[in-house]
């Protein structure tokens, strides 16, 4: 009897200690055997002291925590993802060594009040989310103590200046995203990315660049380049010629008026080129897209293109989709679309253009009959003239209606 009471007490004690160590801290929400611990948006002002030892993902975001004590995460040997966003932290919030945890891979410091990249970051982490902070300048010291970063997300800061050598320590960076900042021409040197020889993805979305960046010394490893929503007017000839591994270029919602001949020369791995909602009015010639032998999708909707020369698409032997809705096309010479050159072409958008439906584009209307699925939304391609067919769509007209006086 005594014996079993004793055993019972011992077992309870053992269970109690277990429960304390592995319990979910009050207010927090734990999942997957307490490996995922959500303490975000709970109003706490300190890091809970009783975090489960096997925590892998810890979300402390959107609280009123002012600082992280040195031993806050001590003993959390499996901690990999630490989310600290939305706490008004500054550079001095992490007490000496608090984040010196070699298991951490992903760190989220978004929505804070940092003026610089904090020091004392985890020694071996690969991903830094640093959205929405008021930082204006990256210096040569910014990443000296964080060379393990591979994914650097700096969207929605106030970056105006990237000093020389700022990114140099990031020799393993595969993505650098500095979109939604205040970068202008001259904010960074053409040599800024010269040490990032593993970089795959570089994003400058919605900054204030007026001239196309000088990419001569950008890493050749680049696969995706994004200058969406800037104020760049011209894509110069040979603008990207050294970036021969590029697969996608995005320049939509910008101010591009002119694409010079040979702008994309050398990019024979490019598969997607996206110019939607720019202001391109330059004539498209057989050299505009020269060299794009692997291109599959060309997005050019909502521009002001009024002339596409025969031959413009002929070199794009892999092209599948051509998107030219909402441009300023009135006519196209026979042969612009020629399945002899573009054997895989299967989708063409031409609607919402001011077409003059006379004999000069009868060939195009004939193409709709000959290849019924090729040209999309023919009911939305409405003729602007000549008077007998004005206001009528390609869907209700037939080739014989396309006549010249
Ligand atoms: C905490 O963050 C997770 C995403 O990481 C989210 O799904 C959850 O709704 C958040 N909890 C609260 C209370 O906001
Ligand atoms: C980080 O912790 C390791 C031991 O885990 C120690 O050797 C190293 O000096 C610490 N680094 C800093 C900057 O505190
Ligand atoms: C650093 O991280 C890599 C994986 O990203 C891992 O293989 C390596 O063991 C880590 N090094 C240390 C010291 O934790
Ligand atoms: C870069 O990656 C390599 C290979 O994974 C690794 O050996 C090296 O330590 C990394 N460099 C830094 C600065 O993290
Ligand atoms: C690009 O930058 C390099 C190095 O600074 C320079 O030599 C080259 O002339 C520049 N190219 C253009 C088109 O400005
Ligand atoms: C491009 O078109 C011009 C005529 O406008 C022609 O002389 C030239 O040979 C063509 N070039 C290519 C590469 O097709
Ligand atoms: C559209 O093209 C016509 C000639 O076909 C030209 O007069 C007009 O300026 C162009 N409009 C724009 C916005 O480019
Ligand atoms: C056309 O598409 C087929 C099937 O996807 C592919 O095998 C072929 O290489 C493509 N042709 C060209 C010229 O890209």
TrEMBL record:
Q: Which domain of life is it from?
A: Eukaryota
Q: Per the database record, which ranges form the LRRNT domain?
A: 23-57
Indicate the secretion signal residues.
1-21
The answer to keyword Ligase applying to this record is no
For this entry, the protein name equals: Nyctalopin
Q: Is Transferase one of the keywords UniProt gives this record?
A: no
**Domain LRRCT: from-to ranges:** 353-405
Q: Which Pfam families match?
A: LRR_5, LRR_8
User: Membrane-spanning regions, if any?
Assistant: none
Q: Which UniProt keywords apply?
A: Leucine-rich repeat, Repeat, Signal
